[in-house]
Amino acid sequence: MKTTAAIESNNFFSTKLDIDTSKTQINMPDIVFAFGPSHSFYFFAGHTRHFSKIPEQFKRYVLESPENEMKRLKQPQCVALGPTEQEYYTMYQTMEDTDRYTYDFQSSHPELMNWLKPLSKVVGTHVAIGPRRTFYACVPTLTNGGTFYSPSIPADLKSLLDDNASADPNRKFTAQVSLGYGDSWYVLWPNGEVSWDFKGHYDELDTIMETLPEKCILHLVLNPWERGQYFMVLEDGEVKFCLPEEYAGEIEDAIKDHQNQWQTKRISSIKGGKAQSHIVGANKIHMVLKDGRRRDKDGPDAPPPYDGGSV
């Protein structure tokens, strides 16, 4: 197990937004990525979103809410896809700036649904779905929250979570957890520190992590179903990823567009000084999946997912 954590590697696509921060504090809009089963994914950056084969219920109730356009997703806070093609969790800010969450784990994790349903709707709640029907959930509040995870999560991760929860009040909860391929895992703590063990399945990412300055990772997800694939966002706006070839180019273009838009926005909004901005690109590598076949499954209509409503 390792703690804390990354930067330039010519083996990975890397794009970075550099702005002179001496004149202003930069708060870049979140970039969110989620891996799903059967090469499904969800990507969000500013006003841009890309996805493939996401659950129909997620699309219907979150992205295209027919009942009320103001209840649709404006900004995701957490998105988890799987373990089946129709299951998911998401907490998000709506068009009317309220916080909502909805999920459907009826087939695979009814115990997780039962645990989540009575809990308070707390901003910062996050869920991770892993291989072999593993899961982790955290509702970060002392009064009506806690953590809940499957018995089959990696033993060293379970020990880390249990030991820290009892010994360190600052680590009673997590800020993000990702369950990866072959019992690999990653944890982001509320103070910005990170812990991880990739179990030899993400060698290049291990190297990146060991060269990063402390407390600089905003978002890191591991693909639980494919070895070596990940998506990382750093606090300075840099994005690193290793994705399947079938959609890596699409995501790369979306990141560049988003950063160019943000660059223009920041330049026009800074007063009394000039922002020096440019996009820095690097060589990229696309991982080609050994099994690139898509498998679409059509089944009977599922009942509506649990809708947690607004906070």
Average predicted local confidence, pLDDT: 77
- Report the β-strand fraction as a percent range: 25-35%
The biggest beta sheet, please? 5 strands, antiparallel
How many β-strand runs?
Answer: 19
Number of spatially distinct domains: 1
Q: Taking strands numbered 1, 2, ... along the chain, how are they ordered across the largest sheet?
A: 15-16-17-2-18
> What order do the helices and strands follow?
EEEEEHEEEHEEEHEEEHEEEHEE
Structural class: alpha+beta
Uncertain residue ranges: 4-29, 266-306
State the end-to-end CA separation: 37 Å
Oligomer: single chain
C-alpha geometry: globular
Q: Tally the helices: what do you get?
A: 5
**Radius of gyration computed on alpha carbons:** 19 Å
- Fraction of helical residues: 10-25%
In short:
By secondary structure, the protein is an alpha+beta fold. Helix content is 20%, strand content 30%.
How is this structure best described in words?
This protein is an alpha+beta fold and 311 residues long. The chain has one domain (2-290). 20% of the residues lie in helices and 30% in strands. It is built from five helices and 19 strands. The strands form five sheets. It has a five-stranded antiparallel beta sheet, with helices on one face. Strands 1-14-13-12 form a four-stranded antiparallel beta sheet, with no helix packed on it. The protein is globular. The model is unreliable at 4-29 and 266-306 (pLDDT under 50). Residues 291-311 are annotated as: Disordered. Residues 291-300 have a biased composition (Basic and acidic residues). Residues 301-311 have a biased composition (Pro residues).
